[in-house]
Amino acid sequence: FGNAGQPIYSGAPFAALQNVIPVSINFGFPISPFATNITERNLAFLDQRAALDWVFGGDLSRVTIFGQSAGGYGVDIWLTGVWPNDEVPFHAAIMQSGT
Fold first, then answer.
1. Structural domain tally of the chain?
2. Which CA distances in Å does 13 have to 22, 62, 91?
3. How many CA atoms lie within 13 A of 24 on its CB side?
4. Which UniProt keywords are listed (predicted)?
5. Which of the four pLDDT bands, split at 50, 70 and 90, describes residue 26?
6. Which end of the chain has less neighbouring CB within 10 Å, N or C?
7. Would residue 92 count as lying in a domain?
8. Does residue 20 fall inside a structural domain?
9. Is residue 7 part of a domain?
10. Which of 49, 22, 45 is nearest to 32 (CA)?
11. Coil, strand or helix at 84
12. Mean pLDDT over residues 51-56, rounded?
């Protein structure tokens, strides 16, 4: 299993070349971390939402989410899931290799 602390996920090279501030997070990974119903206990999305609320003070106009592999699947759920008030805490999304 990978984690956000691995050198391959460092955002430093990207930040040096672009006008961005990469933020990598780890999220809970229970047996069923990605439930499609937000009312279910869902540690992965609770962790991701907490991180999104923290990044830039939750200013969704400044946040693009990106997910690779299982993270890509998470981005897909963020885009297609049912959320309270139809509100998602980002303005753009990138999926890579969603499983």
1. 1
2. 10, 20, 23
3. 14
4. Hydrolase
5. confident
6. N
7. yes
8. no
9. no
10. 45
11. helix
12. 82
CA distance 43 to 96: 22
Contacts of 21 (CB under 8 A, 6+ apart): 11, 15
Q: Which of 24, 55, 48, 23 is nearest to 34 (CA)?
A: 48
Q: In the predicted model, is pLDDT for residue 3 greater than 60? A: yes
Query: Which residue segment(s) compose the domain that 73 sits in?
Result: 27-96
Given this model, what pLDDT does residue 21 score?
A: 86
Helix (H, G, I), strand (E, B), or coil: what is residue 80? helix
Task: Please report the sign of the dihedral spanned by the C-alpha atoms of residue 13, residue 9, residue 68, residue 57.
Answer: negative
Token look-up 């989410």 returns: 65
Q: Is residue 21 part of a domain?
A: no
- The residue assigned the tokens 């200013």 is 59
Is the distance from CB of 76 to CB of 98 less than 8 angstroms?
Answer: yes
Paired tokens of 91 = 């303005």
How much is the pTM?
0.72
